[in-house]
Each structure stands twice: as C-alpha cells, then as structure tokens.
Amino acid sequence: MGLEIERKFLVCPELLGELQHGESICQGYIPTQDKTAVRIRLKGSAAFLTLKGANRGAVRSEFEYAIPVSDAQAILAELCSGPKIEKTRYCRTVGAHVWEIDVFAGSNEGLVVAEIELNSEHEPFEKPPWVAREVTGDARYYNTSLLTKPYLTW
Can 65 be counted among the known catalytic residues? Predict the structure, then answer.
C-alpha cells in the first residue's frame, strides 16, 4: 500500500527570496462520500489521478497514477464540479530533503505553503528560515478545504 507522510508549513515569503523554475498545477476533485479524496491534476505537461485516504496526522494512504493529459482535461471539465485549485509549485533542496513550495492563485491567492515528504513521521529534517508555523493537522489548509472555503474568504 502507498503511504504519504507529509508535513505542511506556512511560508514567510519575504524570507524566501526569488523562486525559479516553477511548474503550473491545476487540480480538481471528484466528490466522495467520506474523508477520501479523488484528485485529478494537470502538472506542466503531465497528468495524474490520485486516490488519498483520510488523514491520520501526517500520514495517509496515497495511490497516484499517470494518465493521458486529454483524459485529465475531460475529467476536470466533466466530473470535477466546482472550482479548481490553481498554484505554481517550486522545489528547493534543503539538507537531505526536497521542499515543495506552493504559491496559490485565484481565490487562494496570497497563500504560500511548503510541504516536505518524509520516510517516517518522526524523521528529522532541516527547517529552512523561510518556513513558519506548521499546519499539517489544520484542515483549513487541505486543498479540498480550500475549494469550499478559499483563503481569500478567511
């Protein structure tokens, strides 16, 4: 079974410096009956279908599959009701880890978060100076939550 162990933090943009080589992401969600998520993502010139289980702290089940871009576009248009998440992702290596920095657009403009994937919940990592408060367990920062209660409405 695939597991995602990920911690999420707010970012101090003024300490981040210039970001380069970002990749545009558009993603939508197919409605489910429980706390699972079915995500369709266009990322640059690639597309993915991702199934995620309920969050258990920083851990949850995750299964991700590459799919044709044309299929992803059709699924986003036909099966993902409502707004989409729009963001640009930048990657920075700090120590032994890669941080993914998401700069949100649209109704979530102004939100900047950094995520780090780990091999275990208690794995040590270097925290860069631009990383601020941890929001791993705060459901407001889940992408699925940002669809229904965008950052600009807080």
Answer: no
Tokens describing residue 44: 């640059």
Q: Which of 115, 106, 108 has the alpha carbon at shortest distance from 134? A: 115
Give me the catalytic one of 29, 90, 142, 151. Answer: 29
Residue with tokens 């367990």: 137
Non-local (6+) Cβ contacts of 84 within 8 A are: 26, 27, 28, 76, 106, 147
DSSP labels, 65-97: EE--HHHHHHHHHHTS-S--EEEEEEEEEETTE
Reference 40, options 1, 80, 83; nearest CA is: 80
Q: Whole-structure pTM over 0.90, yes or no?
A: yes
Supply the DSSP symbol for 96.
T
Q: What is the pLDDT of residue 14?
A: 94
> What average pLDDT does range 71-100 have in this prediction?
95
- What's the chain's length in residues? 154
Cα–Cα dist 102/146, whole Å: 13
Copy the structure tokens of residue 13. Answer: 């943009």
- H or E segment and range at residue 22: none
In the DSSP assignment, the letter for residue 130 is T
Average pLDDT over residues 54-75: 93
Tokens found for residue 142: 């889940």
Would you state the pLDDT for residue 96?
A: 94
